[in-house]
Design brief:
Elements: E1 10-11, E2 17-18, H1 28-46, H2 54-69, H3 75-89, H4 96-107
């Protein structure tokens, strides 16, 4: 008979055995948003040219990255952030693919609610 591995049991502060719980499933939309934001930030960081609105794009990308890690996502604010980033960087052909990925990630959150 072969020996089997024995897992140590987790204990609470009172000494009672705890059953390990799986981590909650991450929202795949937020993961896609985070991945897209990181890709744009990396592409922007290595872009050698001067961009008048680079600072605006950097600030908005930081906000979008924070949104990806936050609890709830406001679709209207997310789309506004995308608009600012694309407005600042959309004319840079070297950033076309990363910006397309960002647009797709934002689209995963759906349309904003209608304004009344």
């Amino acid at each position: 008979m072969e020996p089997t591995a024995v897992r140590p049991r987790a204990f609470s502060s009172t000494g009672a055995a705890r059953t390990p719980r799986p981590a909650p499933a991450a929202d795949p939309r937020k993961a896609a948003l985070l991945s897209a934001v990181v890709r744009v930030r990396r592409a922007l960081a290595v872009h050698p040219g001067w961009l008048a609105d680079r600072e605006v794009a950097d600030e908005e990308l930081a906000r979008l990255q924070a949104v990806a890690g936050a609890g709830t996502v406001e679709v209207t604010a997310l789309r506004h952030g995308l608009l600012l980033v694309v407005g600042a960087l959309g004319s840079v052909s070297a950033l076309t693919e990363p910006l397309r990925e960002l647009r797709g990630a934002v689209a995963l959150f759906g349309e904003p609610p209608e304004r009344r």
